[in-house]
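Notes to self after the Tuesday call (sharing in case useful).
The group wants a holo model before anyone commits to mutagenesis around the pocket. I volunteered. Ligand is 2,6-di-O-phosphono-beta-D-fructofuranose. Logging inputs and output together so the record is complete.
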Amino acid sequence: MTLSRHILEGQRRHPGAEGELSVLLTQLAFAAKLFAHELQRAALSGRLGLSGDTNVQGEATKKLDIFGNQTIIDAFAHTELVGGIVSEEEDEPREMACGDRASYLLCVDPLDGSSNSDVNGAVGTIFGIYKRSGGHAHARTGTLPGSGREQVAAGYVLYGPSTVFVYTTGDGVNGFTLDRDIGEFMLTYPAMQCPAEGRYYAINLTAAAEWAPAVRTYVRSLSGPGGRARGYTQRYSGALVADVHRTLLEGGTYFYPADRKHPDGKLRLLYECAPLAFVVEQAGGRATTGDMNILDVPIMDIHQRVPLAIGSRGEIDRFDQLTHVKETTR
Ligand code: FDP
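Result:
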């Protein structure tokens, strides 16, 4: 089963569908193939290292950040599929030429886990897709969506030993591995289900002293001899996509709580947390800020940050119980 056929079969289950979302997803897969090819050659073609610029968030950008961003933009130029692109690498939504008639808004982190890129570690691309809404805050992007619940599709690409494309359109989650010999993504992870419990937890422990007490209590319950006795063990790859992919397949949790350096959390709502929350929820897991379901967080700004705990339902429920917060939606 190729990715293209899978997308087409999904489209047929929606009789009113005009096929634009299908082409959009196929273009994302095309961009992923180009990016995977470049990542594989980056050390040889001189594309490793910093670009010399910083992005709107004050982070030093890498040459591969810029290549990944441009690859996505080029994949949608003149297609009339997306009116605009919200990207980690763009200060403002990038309005697409010929985007006036487009139906969708694309939110993307082209290169997630960029600190891994110079050491041949796993990196990813994350995407969330919304129907363009009325209003003209931005001519081609429309007004910002209300929350991540409005996503019509989302997914990620993991560039590791193999390249894996995982997506949902709200009808379950499926994963595809790139067969480089034939240039096609093939279905290798059908109907992905996040186990209700898991023994892996992924978190950067260096800011532990600065976390909220509930986060400290929960992570303490997983770590140390007590956690080990109950089978818990830590994995932290430095790439959100890689850690969430492991969590989806094997269960467990990934956390990035608020700390002194990141009072609202480090990760971005529109193009990191909300897409992954949609995927994980569709696979039976959950994602929370500790205060509310990630998919219900009101979107106020394109580069808005939120604290994130994501993964197995049982683990995230336990974490929420500790934070004593009732969610409106689960
Ligand atoms: P990066 O900044 O390298 O792109 O997207 C943010 C992210 O990576 C995640 O992929 C990763 O899990 C996390 O930040 C790593 O941050 P720390 O180095 O602070 O742990």
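Two things stood out.
The mean pLDDT is 93.
The CA atoms of residues 318 and 326 lie 12 Å apart.
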